[in-house]
Amino acid sequence: MEIASTASASYSPINLNPLKAANEQPKLALQLILATVDANSIQNTTASAQSPAAVSGKGQYINITA
Length: 66
Prior knowledge:
Mean pLDDT: 74
Largest sheet: none
Strand content: under 5%
Number of strands: 0
Order of helices and strands: H
Structural class: mainly alpha
Shape: rod-shaped
Low-confidence stretches: none
Oligomer: single chain
């Protein structure tokens, strides 16, 4: 009695795009974090480089106690 093999050697092509996309996620996240940090540091340096507004008015104290 011979046992017939039902397994075939041909495989259907597997779509690896979701796996490739998942492998790219950490790289994309790092790029986003670095871009955000760079943008925030540029904003902070430009904001600190500006001089404060000139003081105007008579310099009177206003009593705000109720």
